[in-house]
Write a structure and sequence with these properties.
mainly beta
């Protein structure tokens, strides 16, 4: 979530569709507390010992409303650039090249294949990484293509342009196909030790976790599937137990048999593409992580989990060196503190 985005903009952006069990009459209050939680996470973010101030952002005019945006150095000049997707008769990726001073110039547009970034025409999940190992950042997105569900990689050329789209259709049932398509949080890492980037995606509807193995050329094939009956909706990856293998931090909506107590589940990787569930850390009180991040918050070298719940509180789970986590520490938001006075 971007600071400065109003709740009305969020409501109409389609993100509220990612909350299938939240009553619409409660959305206004949920979004208000949600915004407060976002502010607290910004305060607790790494390197926040020294306060930072931000200038008023420049407004960049676009042809239509962007449904996805991501940053990267597309032309290799050391400055961060922007890429965003718009939809109309078809989806288009637009490139804005940065000058390092906050200014941007228009680059070359890329016409996307039919079916790319078409989820409700309101939201598009974009991920940046070097999927074809040529040293240039590429952009990953998902779609419901004419040939089926799958992923699309736009290979970066390193000069601000992108090569021909690489589409990977992964065999899947309807719900499993949605795991590639619905813009929930995915993670990218080398899970099987072949030095190619792979994808892990949550399947909220079937309660599963899907692994997609990369070929190092921008293509993907279906790998292992793991069952997670707590309905996963976001996944992060990190080496939580310091064994050199990528592990998974999976955020769920259910926990202890109750809706909204999901918390986070830790899956340990063995470096061959296989994962084992280590432990689940549920929240309590009918809340779940509405917004979350994963980072070393206390500087001890271990990964911590920070999440804001729908009540406006910030929950911090500090990690241990063996991959386990301490019980969540609840930091009441200012608005919650006001309510108790």
């Amino acid at each position: 979530m971007l600071p400065g985005v109003s709740t009305s903009e969020l409501y109409h952006s389609g993100l509220d569709s990612m909350w299938p069990r939240v009553s619409h009459r409660l959305l206004s209050e949920v979004w208000k507390r949600f915004a407060v939680a976002c502010a607290w996470i910004a305060i607790l973010a790494p390197h926040s010992a020294h306060a930072q101030q931000f200038q008023n952002p420049p407004l960049l005019t676009t042809a239509s409303d962007p449904i996805g945006v991501v940053a990267g150095d597309w032309n290799g000049d050391g400055h961060q650039d922007i890429a965003y997707v718009t939809t109309g008769k078809s989806a288009v990726l637009h490139v804005l090249l940065g000058n390092g001073k906050g200014g941007f110039t228009e680059g070359t547009d890329v016409q996307l294949p039919t079916g790319a970034c078409t989820y409700e025409l309101t939201t598009c999940r974009l991920t940046v990484a070097d999927f074809n190992k040529d040293g240039h950042p590429d952009i990953l997105m998902s779609g419901n293509f004419p040939s089926g569900w799958g992923f699309l990689v736009l290979p970066g050329n390193g000069d601000g342009t992108f090569g021909s789209p690489i589409v990977s259709v992964v065999p899947a049932s309807y719900n499993a196909g949605l795991a590639t398509y619905v813009p929930y949080q995915i993670a990218v890492a080398d899970f099987n030790g072949d030095r190619n980037l792979d994808i892990v995606a949550p399947d909220y509807y079937d309660g599963q976790i899907h692994i997609y193995l990369g070929d190092g050329k921008g293509g993907f094939t279906a790998g292992n599937t793991y069952y997670d009956s707590y309905q996963p909706y976001a996944i992060y990856t990190s080496d939580v137990n310091h064994d050199g293998n990528a592990d998974l931090i999976v955020f769920n909506e259910y926990g202890n048999g109750a809706y909204g107590n999901g918390g986070a589940a830790i899956w340990l990787g063995n470096g061959t593409g296989n994962f084992t569930l280590m432990q689940t850390y549920p929240t309590s009180g009918g809340t779940t992580f509405a917004v979350r991040t994963v980072a070393d918050m206390n500087g001890d070298g271990n990964v911590d989990v920070v999440g804001g719940d729908a009540l406006g509180d910030v929950l911090v789970m500090t990690g241990k060196s063996d991959g386990s986590f301490k019980e969540p520490l609840i930091n009441p938001s200012f608005s919650r503190t006001q309510e108790k006075i």
